[in-house]
Every structure is written in structure tokens, then in C-alpha cells.
Recover the amino acids of this structure.
């Protein structure tokens, strides 16, 4: 969370274009929810760890990383290699992208199905408490 705060405070000042994007009106009104929600998620991570929750800190950490990527996207879009190449210049030929999309559309559901099956097969096999059963007992 400290690293996220440092990077979030530093990024708007890496270049004039990024600074204008984050800190000029009306952009500041559009993009202000991103750091505010990020701060809220950090606070919720801290509270859920303090309260002894197990699943919530994990889910909130995922949200924190997604918010970090959103901030990076806002800062750099449409450039992939700032400031030289836009996302459209970096894209491959349409036929190659369509081929990749078909492959992804086939493989991704299979991967998700296999992962769900693996979780189903191994559910309850490991004890939460090292003395409470599982494989060792």
C-alpha cells in the first residue's frame, strides 16, 4: 500500500501530458474517483486484516492492483511505449488479431473449467489448522 501511494503521488508529475491529464479541469473531476477509491480500498484492506478476515483482504488486494492498472492506463493512454507508439500503431494485422481471438475464445473456457474442476476435486483436502486433519492425519 505504501508503494502504491508513492507511485500514485509520483506518476502525475512524470510528464507534462500526464500532469495535464490528471490535474486539469474537467479531467480532475472525471479521474478523482480513481485515487479516492484506491484510498478507500487501502483502508478496507487494513481494517479487514485487523479484523482477522481471510478472504476480504485477498479480494481487496486484487481490486487494489486493478485500480493501479486503471491509473496507469489513464496516465499513458493511448501510448504503449510513451511517447513514441500508440496502441493502434502497436497492434498486429486484423487477421492475426482475429486468429488470436478465436484461440482465446476456445482455450479460456477450457482453462476456467479445468481450474474449477481442480478446485472441486481438492476441496476440503487441506485443513485450516495444522493439527486438525487433512493429508497428515
Amino acid at each position: 500500500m505504501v508503494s502504491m501511494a508513492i507511485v500514485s503521488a509520483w506518476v502525475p508529475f512524470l510528464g507534462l501530458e500526464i500532469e495535464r491529464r490528471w490535474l486539469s479541469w474537467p479531467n480532475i473531476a472525471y479521474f478523482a474517483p480513481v485515487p479516492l477509491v484506491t484510498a478507500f480500498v487501502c483502508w478496507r484492506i487494513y481494517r479487514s486484516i485487523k479484523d482477522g478476515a481471510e478472504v476480504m483482504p485477498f479480494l481487496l488486494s486484487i481490486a487494489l492492483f486493478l485500480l493501479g492498472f486503471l491509473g496507469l492506463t489513464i496516465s499513458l493512454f493511448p501510448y504503449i511505449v510513451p511517447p513514441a507508439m500508440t496502441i493502434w500503431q502497436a497492434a498486429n494485422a486484423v487477421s492475426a488479431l482475429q486468429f488470436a481471438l478465436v484461440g482465446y475464445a476456445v482455450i479460456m473456457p477450457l482453462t476456467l473449467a479445468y481450474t474449477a474442476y481442480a478446485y472441486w476435486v481438492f476441496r476440503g483436502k487441506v485443513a485450516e489448522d495444522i493439527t486438525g486433519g487433512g493429508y497428515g492425519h
Residues 1-88 form one domain. The chain has a mean pLDDT of 87. The longest helix spans residues 94-121.
